[in-house]
Amino acid sequence: MGLWCEKLRVCIDSLGRPKRLFIIVNPYGGKKCARKIFHNEVKPLLVAADIQFTLQETEYQLHAKEIAISLDILKYDGIICVSGDGVLVEVVNGLLQREDWATAIKLPLGIVPAGTGNGMAKSLLDEVNDSYSVSNAVFAIIRGHKRPLDVATVLQERIRFFSVLMLTWGLVADIDIESEKYRWMGSARLDFYCLMRLVNLRRYLGQVSFVPAPGYETFGQPILQNGNCNCDLETQDQGRLDKIVQDGYQGPSTSFETHEWRSIDGPFISVWLHNVPWASADIMPAPAAKFADGYLDLVIIRDCPRASLISLLMKFSDGTHVKSPYVMYLKVKAFRLEPGSRAGNPKKGGIIDSDGEVIARGKGTYNCQQVDLMAYGPPIYMTVDQGLATIFSPI
């Protein structure tokens, strides 16, 4: 109790701490315990710190996005998500669809872990060697310290999506999404389905292209600008988008036409881009990722014997997988994915997952009534806006 009181006193004494917060609780995520976490662990600390708040529970998918679009942001010092990472992503997308997006996206965001994937909360706390807990996440918000956060724009022709966590294709996406049919097994479903996928390992044809960060120019092969691959986002997609979407953030205006693009051809076992170090409380795919360095960390596994792959996947818990000779690990400023079919099975494609949600599915993956945001096959681009958003941080 003494340590708890001391932490709270330090938080209350902090300059610039929030006075009024809008709190979004997702009662359906993870183990469906977010409501209980808020009332038992979050609310007592906010009340003790004399912070006023407005509470809103989400009732359906994308509800948090709708809330962010219509919220009177002048009434609040921040938006707090008591949830997994998905609600935070919805809020970012809602703020960036507003007419006043440039002001709205600077409203500080906070995350209290209460879902299946809590990679953002884990990354923020681990940065300062704080233990991963609800109370420490709340203390960080009460204290009021903030840091900038990179936002990635995921783009395909007329469709745009904003990401703050990750994009994955191949093995990791297959495990994350296809294991949903075993949700009755609880968290064991991921380990179970991982073994299934290792027994029947899939490789995917395709190509990834990227603008490497300084120091990573040796990865891949250079793409000639007068070749068949036009990797410039500005000329290829952005012009059409500007005519279609009048309100909201239009994505980075930077043209990468003059940058040197490089490419890597498949087949691939896994392609994983990350904005922060942790994907969940116990998986760290991108140990060198920074919150606002203006780059995405790219993790590629092209080929790996099954026996070595089992050992490699276990190393994702502490980030030592990046030392494996079977892993390519680099930082990129812009990225282009051309996903193809499974090697040896041209009638079946893969799954592309961004921040825990399917954005594109190939043929023969799984039956789903939901319409995907993007198509599987045409190029998907990612660019990074350095420090576009703001997030409450322990320091």
Automatic annotation (TrEMBL):
Gene3D superfamilies with a match to the protein in the record: 2.60.200.40, Probable inorganic polyphosphate/atp-NAD kinase, domain 1
Keywords: ATP-binding, Kinase, Membrane, Nucleotide-binding, Transferase
Domain DAGKc: 16-158
Topology in the lipid bilayer: Peripheral membrane protein
Pfam families recorded: DAGK_cat, YegS_C
MF-aspect GO terms: ATP binding; sphingosine kinase activity
Domain of life: Eukaryota
The UniProt record lists the keyword Kinase: yes
EC number, as in UniProt: 2.7.1.91
Subcellular localization, as worded in the UniProt entry: Vacuole membrane
GO CC field: vacuolar membrane
Signal peptide per UniProt: none
PROSITE patterns, sorted: DAGK (PS50146)
SUPFAM superfamilies the UniProt entry points to: NAD kinase/diacylglycerol kinase-like (SSF111331)
Gene Ontology biological process: cellular response to abscisic acid stimulus; sphingosine biosynthetic process
Enzyme class: transferase
Name of the featured protein: sphingosine kinase
Species per Swiss-Prot/TrEMBL record: Acorus calamus (Sweet flag)
